[in-house]
C-alpha cells in the first residue's frame, strides 16, 4: 500500500447533514516526520484527527495510517497508533503508574512487558518519583507528560498529539516541546500534531498544513511557507540620499521588489541571509556606502494571516471547544481539584 | 513495530476498565461510606419509622365505662389478632420491617445502577471515551465494563445492607436455608445486569450530565414506587398494578422475599427468575449491540 505514514484522500466529515467540518482534505505524512496541523478553533483539526484515529467515521473519502485502511482495518490502525487527546484524560483518582498500566491493558499488552515499559516511560518523562501519587495532585505539565507516556505504551508507529500544550504556561510549553523532541529521538516515530500556537509549529514541525474552514489552504515546511510569502524583508539606507539605487538593487538575483520610502529602501528578497551580501556588494561596486541594514524574516504569523485572512489571536472559540479548553485549563492550572 | 492482533484475547481491557471504575469506588472511603450508609438510613427510616404493626397493636379503644375488664382485654386482643391477620394478608409477614428491608435490596440495586451511567457521560465529556475508542478495545467491552462494575458494586452494597437488616431484626421465613442466599444474589445479579444496561445505554448518547440526571430522576421514583419494594401491589389501583406487573423490580423483590421471608411458592419463583433472566439477557444484548453501533460511528 502507501509508503507514507499517513495518506489522506478526499477525507470529508459533515455533521448533521449541513455542517461541513472537514472538506475533501488531501495530504500525506512521510515516515519519521513531525507534521503539524495549524488552524483556528473550529477549523477541523480535531475532527480530522478523530477520523484518522478511527474514533469518527468519515462521511466521504478515506485514509491510510501505517499503511492500514482506516475504514476497513480499524483494529490494525488502532494497534499501531498512539493518541494524546486535547483533554487531560488520565484518571484523577488513580496514580500515575496505575494510569499507564490501564492504557497498557487497553492494548492487551502482557503485564510483565507493560510494567517494564511503564517504568521506562515514567523515567523518560521524569515522573518516576510521582508514580504512586494520585493524578489529582499533579500539575498541568506533569499531567501532559503522563499523557505522553500513556500514549507511547504500545510503542506506536504514528503518534497523534491534539493540541499538546493547550493551556500550559510558556515555560511548561517549552518543556513539553523538549519532551516531544526527546520522545521522537528515542523512538523515531512519525508525529502528527495539531496546534494553534504558531511558534510551536515553527519550532517542532518538519512540515505544516494550514487548515481553515475544513480545507487545507497551504502545506509545506515552515521555511517554505514563509518563502512563499515573498521572502524576507531587508531594509537599508545609504549615505548619499540624493541618488536612487532601486534599479541597481533590482538587478541582483533573487531580489523581488524594491521600494524607497523616506530614504529607506525596503527590499523583498528570497533567502535573505544569502542574498544580503550580494546586494551590499552590488551597491559598493557603484561607489555607495551602506549606513544601515536590517533583515527580518517573516514569521508564521504573517503566513497564517496571509492564508486565513485573520490573525490567530483574534478568533472566537466555539462553545464546545471553549468548554473543553476551560476544563483543560482549569486542570492545568489547578493541580488540585 | 506492532504486536499482532490475532494472539490477543478479544476481552482484553474489559477487566482493566471495570477495575478502573471499582477503584474509584473502593479507594475513596467517603464515597464508599456514603453509598452504603444511604440505603441503611432508608431502611431504618422506612422500616422502623413506618411501624405499621404498631398502628393496630397499640390501640387502646375508648370503650364505654361499665364493660368488665375481661371483655376489654378480649376486645383488645381480638383487634390485635385481627390486625396481625391484616398485616400478614397484606405483606405476607406480620413484620413490616422485614418486608421493607428486603425491598430495600432492590432499591439499592436500582439506585446504584442508575448512577453508573453518569460515569460514561463524564468519560465522554473529559475525552477519556475518545481515548479508549482509539485503542483496540472491543466496543462492546467499553459498555460491559460499566455494566459489570455497576453489578459488582450493587451486589456488594446489597450484601452489606442485608447484614445490617439481620442485625436490626429481620425475621427469616420458614423455608429459609443458607443456600437461599445464593438465589437472592442470583436474582439481584439479573436485575442489576438488566437495569445497568438500560441506564448506561441512555447515558451513552447524552453529552450533558444535566440531561442525563433529569432522565434518571424521571425514571427512578416510578420504578421504585410502582413496584412491590415498599408496598404490596395488590392494594394499588388497576392502572398502577398494570405497570407494577411489568416492572422488573417487582420480580426481583418477589424472588428475594420468597427466598428470605415467605413460604416458597415454587411456581411463582420460577416465573420470577424466568422474567428476570429474559429481562437481563434481552437488555444486555440490546446494550452491547447498540453501543457497538453507536460507538463505531
Tell me what you see in this structure.
The complex is a heterodimer of chains A (337) and B (297). Chain A has helices spanning 45-52, 74-80, 96-106, 111-124, 140-151, 170-187, 198-204, 222-228, 246-250, 272-285, 300-308, 319-334, and strands at residues 6-15, 19-29, 34-38, 60-65, 68-69, 81-84, 158-162, 190-195, 207-212, 215-220, 232-238, 255-261, 264-269, 290-296. Helix content of chain A is 38%, strand content 26%. In chain A, helix 3 (96-106) packs parallel to helix 5 and helix 5 (140-151) runs parallel beside helix 6 (170-187). Chain A has 2 domains: 6-225 and 310-334, P-loop containing nucleotide triphosphate hydrolases (Rossmann fold); 230-297, Alpha-Beta Plaits (2-Layer Sandwich). Chain B folds into 2 domains: 14-48 and 94-295, no CATH class; 51-91. Chain B has helices at 14-26, 29-49, 52-57, 69-91, 96-125, 128-133, 139-167, 180-205, 209-225, 238-246, 248-260, 266-295. Mean pLDDT of chain B is 83; it is low at 1-7. Chain A binds chain B through residues 50, 53-57, 66, 74-76, 78-81, 83, 85-89, 91, 93-94, 98, 101-103, 105-109, 154-157, 160, 324, 327, and chain B through 1-3, 5, 8-9, 12-13, 15-17, 20, 23-24, 27-28, 125-128, 130-137, 296-297.
Amino acid at each position: 500500500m502507501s509508503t507514507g505514514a499517513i495518506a489522506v484522500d478526499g477525507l470529508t466529515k459533515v455533521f448533521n447533514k449541513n455542517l461541513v467540518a472537514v472538506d475533501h482534505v488531501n495530504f500525506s505524512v512521510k515516515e519519521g516526520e513531525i507534521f503539524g496541523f495549524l488552524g483556528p478553533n473550529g477549523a477541523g483539526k480535531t475532527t480530522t484527527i478523530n477520523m484518522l484515529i478511527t474514533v469518527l467515521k468519515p462521511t466521504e473519502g478515506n485514509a491510510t495510517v501505517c499503511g492500514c485502511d482506516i475504514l476497513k482495518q480499524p483494529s490494525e490502525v488502532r494497534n499501531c497508533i498512539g493518541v494524546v487527546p486535547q483533554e487531560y484524560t488520565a484518571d484523577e483518582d488513580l496514580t500515575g503508574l496505575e494510569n499507564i498500566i490501564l492504557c497498557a491493558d487497553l492494548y492487551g499488552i502482557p503485564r510483565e512487558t507493560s510494567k517494564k515499559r511503564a517504568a521506562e516511560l515514567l523515567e523518560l518523562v521524569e515522573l518516576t518519583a510521582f508514580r504512586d501519587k494520585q493524578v489529582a495532585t499533579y500539575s498541568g505539565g506533569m499531567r501532559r507528560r503522563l499523557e505522553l507516556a500513556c500514549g507511547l505504551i504500545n510503542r506506536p508507529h504514528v503518534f497523534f498529539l491534539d493540541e499538546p500544550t493547550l493551556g500550559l504556561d510558556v515555560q511548561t510549553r517549552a518543556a513539553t516541546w523538549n519532551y516531544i523532541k526527546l520522545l521522537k529521538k528515542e523512538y523515531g516515530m512519525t508525529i502528527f500534531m495539531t496546534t494553534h500556537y504558531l511558534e510551536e509549529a515553527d519550532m517542532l514541525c518538519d512540515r505544516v498544513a494550514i487548515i481553515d474552514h475544513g480545507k487545507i489552504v497551504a502545506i509545506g515546511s515552515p521555511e517554505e511557507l514563509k518563502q512563499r510569502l515573498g521572502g524576507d524583508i531587508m531594509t537599508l539606507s545609504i549615505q548619499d540620499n540624493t541618488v536612487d539605487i532601486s534599479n541597481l538593487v533590482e538587478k541582483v538575483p533573487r531580489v523581488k521588489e524594491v521600494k524607497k520610502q523616506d530614504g529607506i529602501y525596503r527590499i523583498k528578497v528570497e533567502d535573505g541571509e544569502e542574498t544580503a551580501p550580494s546586494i551590499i556588494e552590488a551597491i559598493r561596486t557603484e561607489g555607495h556606502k551602506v549606513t544601515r541594514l536590517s533583515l527580518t524574516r517573516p514569521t508564521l504569523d504573517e503566513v497564517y494571516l496571509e492564508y486565513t485572512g485573520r490573525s490567530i489571536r483574534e478568533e472566537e472559540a466555539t462553545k464546545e471547544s471553549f468548554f473543553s479548553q476551560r476544563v483543560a485549563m482549569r486542570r492545568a492550572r489547578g493541580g488540585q481539584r | 513495530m506492532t504486536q499482532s492482533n490475532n494472539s490477543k484475547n478479544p476481552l482484553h481491557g474489559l477487566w482493566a476498565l471495570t477495575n478502573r471504575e471499582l477503584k474509584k469506588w473502593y479507594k475513596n472511603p467517603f464515597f464508599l461510606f456514603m453509598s452504603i450508609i444511604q440505603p441503611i438510613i432508608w431502611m431504618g427510616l422506612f422500616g422502623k419509622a413506618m411501624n405499621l404493626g404498631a398502628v393496630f397493636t397499640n390501640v387502646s379503644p375508648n370503650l364505654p365505662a361499665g364493660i368488665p375488664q375481661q371483655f376489654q382485654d378480649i376486645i383488645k386482643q381480638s383487634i390485635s389478632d385481627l390486625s396481625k391477620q391484616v398485616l400478614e394478608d397484606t405483606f405476607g409477614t406480620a413484620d413490616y420491617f422485614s418486608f421493607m428491608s428486603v425491598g430495600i435490596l432492590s432499591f439499592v440495586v436500582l439506585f446504584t445502577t442508575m448512577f453508573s451511567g453518569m460515569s460514561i457521560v463524564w468519560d465522554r465529556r473529559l475525552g477519556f471515551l475518545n481515548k479508549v475508542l482509539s485503542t483496540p478495545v472491543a466496543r462492546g467491552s467499553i459498555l460491559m465494563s460499566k455494566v459489570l462494575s455497576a453489578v459488582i458494586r450493587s451486589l456488594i452494597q446489597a450484601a452489606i445492607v442485608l447484614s445490617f437488616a439481620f442485625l436490626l431484626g429481620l425475621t427469616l421465613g420458614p423455608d429459609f436455608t443458607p443456600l437461599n442466599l445464593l438465589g437472592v444474589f442470583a436474582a439481584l445479579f439479573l436485575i442489576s445486569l438488566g437495569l445497568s444496561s438500560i441506564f448506561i445505554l441512555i447515558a451513552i448518547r447524552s453529552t450533558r450530565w444535566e440531561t442525563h440526571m433529569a432522565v434518571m430522576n424521571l425514571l427512578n421514583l416510578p420504578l421504585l414506587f410502582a413496584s412491590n419494594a415498599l408496598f404490596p401491589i395488590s392494594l394499588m389501583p388497576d392502572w398502577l398494578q398494570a405497570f407494577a406487573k411489568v416492572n422488573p423490580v417487582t420480580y426481583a423483590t418477589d424472588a428475594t422475599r420468597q427466598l428470605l421471608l415467605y413460604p416458597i411458592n415454587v411456581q411463582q419463583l420460577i416465573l420470577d427468575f424466568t422474567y428476570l433472566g429474559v429481562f437481563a439477557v434481552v437488555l444486555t444484548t440490546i446494550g452491547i449491540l447498540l453501543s457497538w453501533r453507536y460507538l463505531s460511528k
